[in-house]
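Researcher: Please predict.
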Amino acid sequence: MSMASFSIGLSLLSSNALKEPGRRELLSAEGRRILSLIEGKPLADNDIAKDENGRPYFPDRRADFNISHSGVVTAVSLVKGGKFRTGCDVQIAKTRGNTLKIAESFFSDAERDCILTQDNDENRKEKFFQIWTLKECFLKLRGLSVFDMKKTPSFVCDEAPEKGMYRRHFIFDAAVSSPLSFYIYELKNDCDEKYFLTVAIEGDGQLRPEIHWFSQSLLPVRSIAEIKAAVSPAETVSPKI
């Protein structure tokens, strides 16, 4: 029996390439290229199917994948060798005029307050995108759409269990029937342009992801936090942000 593995494939396209016509098709093709390289073989059109919600999957193998892209970064999460499911979302952290409106409409009170109580605009922007990628990753794991954003759990908890102190924590605020882990990363280039990447894995026998680059250029990757949502609430880990 083959060993299970959990991989994150990343690729950095040139800014000039994304100015060409057919940008969406180029990014889609890059995601498929990365998936083929991680799989170790070319993918035919009939190797990938879509479920009733439009979520792509492998119909004939013990593997699951998810693809995301933003700016010049394409990200693929792939888990093989067991009954696992994965989600993946990457976002470039650009200033948006509707950030607070989105938080007011779709985030929990604790998530919104976590953003608003940051001490400067840059930190508020970063917290927004960290939470946003967590929520998008959960939606893609479940095969839901952005219109289901209000169905996502809260990923921020106010009260820390130690010493009665109040701090901001990432925590998965929902019951789970199978172990579920989220991994959040920051990617940053020389121009201080930042991306936030979140990947998730669901299933027994949790695995840590291995990161692989599939482009000539790459960005430093820094781990931000991990969330491990166990079936038993007492085992749930809630790292600080």
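Model: The chain has a mean pLDDT of 86.
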